[in-house]
Amino acid sequence: MKKLLITTVLISAFSQVAQADTSELTMDGEFGFIFATGNTETTSASAGLTLKQELEKWSNEFAFNGLYKQDQVTVGEGADAEDVGRILDDVSTGELIVTEVMNNPSVVSDETGEWIEIFNNSESAINLEGLTVSDAGDDGFTIEEVLTIPSREHIVLGLSMDSSMNGGLQLSFAYTGFVLSNTSDEVFLSHNDE
Ligand SMILES: [Ca+2]
Ligand SMILES: [Ca+2]
Fold it and tell me: pLDDT tens digits, residue range 87-144?
């Protein structure tokens, strides 16, 4: 099995921002690093996409390539928008993006108030079952249930589903075993590409 890295966000050098801004730390996906480790295809294989989709895809690629050296990213095949969404094997680098993290909540404790927001930057729903969220150390968890993220929408994963404990959020998934440092940390999205 090959571990396919989808998206990486580094929490670093933003710690001062987090400490200065007592409300929340907002980290755009643009601050993250997006690596292509394989399974990428060239845009020449994209026949059949509409011109509009091509333009959108191109603009996405432009945004990513402007920030990171990587292979080209394609919109995944098998875009079956019904039921639970595409499986992760069909998801390409750049289609899932970590758009925000809360690593240092102020109104609730870190133990219940940390969260991660993921954006589906693709044309179809994606099933996050099998997605591993990890850091460069020993922190990590894998989503082992069907968890659909609709096209062009966000979902939030956090430590507590209880909105009175997590700062008032409606979470889609609660995890354990993953702590976001208030100084320096990483968020990797990956899955085992079987
Ligand atoms: Ca923290
Ligand atoms: Ca960590």
Answer: 999 999 899 999 999 999 999 999 999 999 999 999 999 999 999 999 999 999 999 9
How many whole angstroms from 49 Cα to the centroid of ligand 1?
42
Q: From ligand 1's centre to the CA of 57, what distance in Å?
A: 34
**SS3 state at 54:** helix
Q: pLDDT per residue over 23-40, tens digit each? A: 333 333 333 333 333 333
What tokens appear for 74 in the block? 């394609």
| Ligand 2 center to 83 CA (angstroms) | 33
What distance in Å separates the CA atoms of residue 136 and residue 143, rounded to the nearest whole number?
18
Looking at the structure of the chain, the number of domains it has is 1
What is the reported pTM? 0.62
Q: Which of 102, 95, 97 is nearest to 75 (CA)?
A: 95
Domain range spanning residue 23?
2-193
